[in-house]
Amino acid sequence: MISVHSLSKKYGGATVLDLQELNIPKGELFGLVGNNGAGKTTFFSLLLDLIESSSGTVSINEIDVQKSEAWKPFTSAFIDESYLIGYLTVEEYYHFIGSLRGETIEEVDLFVKAFEPFFNSEILNQKKYLRDFSKGNQKKAGIIGALIGHPEVVILDEPFANLDPTTQIRLKTLLKEEAQKHGTTFLISSHDLTHVTDVCERIVLLEKGVILKDIKTTPSTLKELEHYFSN
Amino acid sequence: MSISLKQSISLSKKKFFRAPQWELKLAARIFIGFIALYFLVVFLALGIGLFFIIREASPDQDPVSVVNLWIIYFFGIDFLMRYFIQNPPITDVKSLLLQPITKAQIIQRVMLRSLTSFFNFIPLIILIPFCVVVSVENGSTLSLWIWFFAILTLSVTSNYLIFLINKNKSIAIGTLIFLILGYLLETYFKIPVISFFSSGFEAIYTQPLWILVPLALFAFIWQLTQRFLKSQLYLDKGLGKKKERIIGSKLKFFDAWGTIGVLLKNDIRLIIRNIRARQVVLMGFMFLFYGLFFFTQQIYIERPVVLIFAGVFITGGFMTAYGQYVPAWDSEYYSFLMGQNLPYKEYLKSKLYLLMFSIVLCTFLSFPYLYFGKKVMLIILAAGLFNLGLGSLINLFSGAYNATPIKLNVKAKAFENTQAFNLTQLLFSLPKLVLPIIIFYLPYAFLGFNAGILGLVFSGILGLVFQNKILNWIERIYQTKKYETLASFNKSKI
Fold first, then answer.
1. How many domains does chain A have?
2. Which of B84, B350, B370, B455 pairs with A145 at a CA distance of 20 to 30 A?
3. Which of A16, A50, A63, A130 to mutate to test the interface with B (most CBs of B within 10 A)?
């Protein structure tokens, strides 16, 4: 689904990302961990063609994201609050995304209604603008927004941060279900090692822009990661 | 005080030089400095000239008394302007709350700092030269300076009144209605509304003891403001966000237009739901009245080139005011848009249609100018067509080079609007003004008025015919500028 070839990003003289080879198959729950400055967000930004690579290519479904926009119909992301349109209500925001992805208002309404348990009655029908939501609720709204229109690839940056414990647990179930039901490929970055090992089948550990570990998740993965980060 | 002056200057210096495109901002600051200087000179000239104008118009009356007749309008308009533009700097104090400063000190600071507002200097700049001229020409009197002081006091009182009414719309509308109604009652029905205030100011001027009234009013408002601010220094009061009413939720009309309709719907919501956008759009529509300035003066009526200039402004006011910040209006969520299933061209097209729609609307609204003759109307229509065909595209094109982000829900302050103002933008606005004049002038000089009009009409149609081709070309520029624009929009998300 996603393939990366000798992708690098340099700012001035400093290399912030240098990935030789990375392939993510369809339907994989892919986790990305690493300390601040490891290059997680840089990688996501390159994948979404928001920054220019210094060398190399990223393709989604064989489409080089820097050469064509044809990856956009089946790719979506929620990186931070700047992925919300602050002056819209949640419903208007969802309808907006939906209409860009060829869904009718009714389809979108029906789709998001199914996530009511995840929303915990705090998102829909609130009669307020997205900019007035709390950080946690903005995140909830954004994550579900990224699922509208059945994208094949969903990129989530730090989805667990700012969520209350109940929602964190519900999010884990939700992600697993979506991947299983629709074969959605998820790329998730997180500082929370427990959650990311719970959810992801495969975890890549980045440090200073290079891949240090690329592991299939097993019961011992959490220990392994904790051991790495405590040194 | 928690931070010394030196620290505070150093902080603002850092804020300035570390901002994206700071070189351009510096140029913009200098430019705005010149504009401020220009206004300063204009007001100074007004202050000095006022005396002579009044003496010319009514030689038997005391100039100060003549000023008194009209001064209530000044206060009314000043109050409305403050209402729209002035922002009580109360939300900035959140970070001070946990510092070892007393609340009284914070309030004092807020109240003193608000005095630096541009509006508080207007009466100073106008009235000091006026009073100096009056004292030179008619002899200095104590009562004159007491009158001056009274006006100053009232102006500062108005400064604090803005705090108290706290964005109360009905008070602003009430003030406007009062001014208009007062004028009408006074002139047509001889009911003394305005002259009641005039005689009040006259009383201060002739019997200085009346100064006690404005002073008492000031003291009263000062006290009230202090008390009010104290009650507002809580997160769930003045420092918190106000709950907003949802407006513009039903815009079904656009649903039939596909993707472009969806984007247009968003733009309409952007305009009506964000303070900054509302401000700019309001300003854009003010240009509609720009024609009154030109068409009423015989000297301009005989110069069609000047009238073209007016026509371009009348029909393209909104386009210029709003369009110069495309795509910066979407800067807060530009990354999101770039990742959506949304071809760049559709996005640009929706912006273009919005601009074109505004031109049609403005042209339609300018029909009353027919009053000034067919020729004037013809000029407006031709200028409108130029704007529709070419002006809109030039506007969109220049947007590709404007990468200074905008904070949507924050008011712009008078003369501090370096936000998204830059020199490139200014350079780009030149062709928008100069081009139609050249297009008109060349045929006009050789073949006469009608040929000039035809030149404009033809250029507009040409723009419309090749719109798609030109749009493709503009899209490519936007594509190549994309990363730069994104970097700049994201940088200032602090």
1. 1
2. B350
3. A50
